[in-house]
Design a protein that fits this description.
The complex is a heterodimer of chains A (106) and B (122).
Chain A lengths: L3 E4 L2 E4 L5 E7 L7 E6 L6 E5 L3 E2 L7 E6 L2 E6 L9 E6 L5 E2 L3 E5 L1
Parallel strand pairs in A: 2-11
Antiparallel strand pairs in A: 1-3, 3-8, 4-5, 4-9, 5-6, 7-8, 9-10, 9-11
Chain B lengths: L2 E5 L2 E3 L5 E8 L8 E6 L5 E7 L6 E3 L7 E6 L4 E6 L8 E8 L9 E4 L3 E5 L2
Parallel strand pairs in B: 2-11
Antiparallel strand pairs in B: 1-3, 3-8, 4-5, 4-9, 5-6, 7-8, 9-10, 9-11
The chains are: A mainly beta (106), B mainly beta (122).
Chain lengths: 106, 122
């Protein structure tokens, strides 16, 4: 089974900050990686697929990069609506989520 | 608009059974693979099961294999999850989700339902 490890688990940041979240796979997954945003009591929302493709309707301040085993999600300028928990997910072999990164207000 | 609506959650005793449903609308349901994903209270997301668009392939997480069965009725635009031999650790919000691209198996999930809560407790 492919394990996904996100870091950090919690991130404290201010509006306007550049934020980066890292996701590592236990084996190569090429670019078969997605990022989701989840707010309390809500379903996850797809942000990025195939490591770097922006889902339709998602603000351009979100970007993804990486391939193989190391990936990043970057928010170029954090907005109030971005405080949430973010999950990476591999879909190279079955489907596995990372443990999540909570972005909280500093 | 594209929508998924889950139902069937509730409180059940350990060892009991429950069937979840997910009603799809706004897209050609029979063209898309579908998943169930769960989230225990205060925890992260856990993939549970997948069914191919035509029902020909099904995959399960190790934690539910042999106890849960995923199925679909393309004539009714509905996805199901039959859950048997339920355990306390199955307590979670259960989401259905669709694959982003038609006809694929390995893809991201672009539309999610609102979730239905399953509580396994005596």
């Amino acid at each position: 089974d492919i394990q996904m490890t996100q870091s950090p688990s919690t991130l404290s940041a201010s509006v306007g900050d550049r934020v980066t979240i890292t996701c590592r796979a236990s084996q190569s997954i090429s670019t078969w990686l997605a990022w989701y945003q989840q707010k309390p009591g809500k379903a996850p929302k797809l942000l990025i697929y195939k490591a770097s493709s922006l889902e339709s309707g998602v603000p351009s301040r979100f970007s993804g990069s990486g391939s193989g085993t190391e990936f990043t999600l970057t928010i170029s300028s954090l907005q109030p609506d971005d405080f949430a928990t973010y999950y990476c997910q591999q879909y190279n072999s079955y489907w596995t989520f990372g443990q999540g990164t909570k972005v909280e207000i500093k | 608009q594209v929508q998924l609506v889950e139902s069937g959650g509730g409180v059940v005793q350990p060892g009991g059974s429950l069937r979840l449903s997910c009603a799809a609308s706004g897209f050609t349901f029979s063209s898309y693979g579908m998943h169930w994903v769960r989230q225990a209270p205060g925890k992260g997301l856990e993939w549970v099961a997948f069914i191919r668009y035509d029902g020909s392939d099904k995959y399960y997480a190790d934690s539910v294999r042999g106890r849960f069965t995923i199925s679909r009725d393309n004539s009714r635009n509905t996805l199901y999850l039959q859950m048997n031999s339920l355990r306390a650790e199955d307590t979670a919000v259960y989401y259905c989700a669709k694959l982003r691209a038609a006809g694929t198996t390995w893809d991201a999930f672009d539309v999610w339902g609102q979730g239905t809560m399953v509580t396994v407790s005596s």
